[in-house]
Design brief:
- The chain is α/β, with parallel strands linked by helices.
- The protein has two domains: about 170 residues, 3-Layer(aba) Sandwich (Rossmann fold); about 120 residues, Rossmann fold (3-Layer(aba) Sandwich), CATH 3.40.50.
- It is built from eight helices and 17 strands.
- The structure holds flavin-adenine dinucleotide (FAD).
């Protein structure tokens, strides 16, 4: 019996969300009194670094057939590693990739599937996990009744913790047998930016900016903060910004350390995707804007004055 963590990578580099998943898996394994292992697929980085986060064995799979994303084949690869490691709990990060793989793993293993985990398990016998629900407006506690459990954790919700693990990398042979159902035809990736689900700081703007020509000040503020940019749904619907920046119930869910919302009213559907942010700063000219109720800090003022002043103040502060 062990815990197996699926470690994602981005062009061969281990993703931040995966260190968090490794830490979670290691803490859970310690509670269960078993070892934590991990599986990596086509990783260029030195995966032994996962030992720092409590991973004992890293099963490394190399396969040309997994060079582009295929959730069926990846689930089969993870299942192979799970069998090799004798895992009864599988941990993934709830990224786009994790969300596409976790249900397939549950089918492969006839397992209990617990998604959106936001805390370490309350108990291990039975395995009881707190998850966010109702668009982040509440929590639900799930108990696993199955022999095997798949847990996917909300990215950035739990943080990275260090534990001592051996970090021994073992090559694992794998040849997929799953018939190809879907083929990746083309990848159109946003370049040179931190992907939104991975971002620590996000500067986001809405219809209050009046038009796409005014986004320069948002990008400048993001640049001084080392932040990613996001937007509300109508902004991407009107093609002021790309759809890859749309956050909310029907867009990307983010959990950054800092979320700065500029000229966004704070509709419930927007909040559904951003309320997991650790600190929320709202800049809005309307003191009655609903977003202020969800804010840790609020500035009532004209974004066209407040944002450049804030950018300048941060620049000066950083120069000191
Ligand atoms: C099924 C469904 C799903 C949806 N999913 C999403 C989703 O995923 N994400 C999402 O964002 N929305 C979503 N919406 C839309 C949502 O309900 C809101 O309509 C939308 O979030 C509003 O966008 P906004 O805040 O940019 O614009 P508005 O509501 O028009 O707000 C603009 C804000 O800017 C402020 N403002 C104006 N001028 C200035 C200025 N000069 N300086 C500072 N502030 C200024 C105004 O006071 C106002 O609060 C969804 C709606 C539905 C029905």
């Amino acid at each position: 019996m062990s815990v197996l963590v699926f470690i994602e990578n981005w062009d061969g580099k281990l993703k931040k969300a995966s260190y968090e998943a490794a830490s979670y898996g290691a803490r859970l394994a310690a509670k269960l009194g078993v070892q934590a292992h991990a599986v990596v697929i086509n990783v260029a980085d030195d995966a032994s670094v996962l030992g720092k986060y409590g991973i004992d064995t890293v099963y490394a799979i190399e396969s040309n057939e997994l060079s582009s994303f295929n959730n069926y084949k990846m689930a089969e690869a993870i299942t192979t590693a799970a069998k090799e490691s004798g895992a009864k709990v599988l941990v993934l990060s709830g990224t786009f990739t994790g969300k596409m793989i976790a249900p397939l793993l549950a089918v492969h293993h006839k397992a209990a599937l617990i998604t959106n985990a936001v805390a370490d398990p309350e108990s291990t016998s039975p395995l009881k996990v707190k998850r966010s629900a109702f668009s982040n407006k509440g929590y639900v506690y799930y108990e696993s009744l199955a022999e095997t459990a798949i847990i996917s954790i909300v990215p950035n919700a739990l943080g990275i913790t260090e534990h001592s693990g051996k970090g021994e990398v073992k090559k694992l042979d794998f040849t997929p047998t799953t018939p190809v159902q879907v083929e990746v035809v083309e990848i159109d990736r946003a370049k040179g930016k931190i992907p939104l689900p991975e971002a620590e700081i996000v500067v986001s703007a809405g219809r209050g900016l009046k038009g796409p020509e005014n986004w320069g000040m948002i990008e400048e503020l993001a640049e001084v903060l080392g932040a990613s940019t996001a937007c509300s749904k109508p902004v991407s619907d009107m093609h002021w910004r790309p759809h890859s920046e749309h956050v909310g119930q029907t867009g990307i869910t983010i959990n950054p350390q800092l979320y700065i919302a500029v000229g966004i009213s704070g509709a419930i559907q927007h909040l559904a995707g951003v309320s997991g942010s650790k600190t929320i700063v709202v800049i809005n000219s309307d003191p009655e804007a609903p977003f202020f109720k969800a804010a840790d800090y609020g500035v009532v003022g004209d974004a066209f004055k407040v944002v450049p002043a804030l950018t300048e103040a941060i620049r000066k502060y950083k120069a000191q």
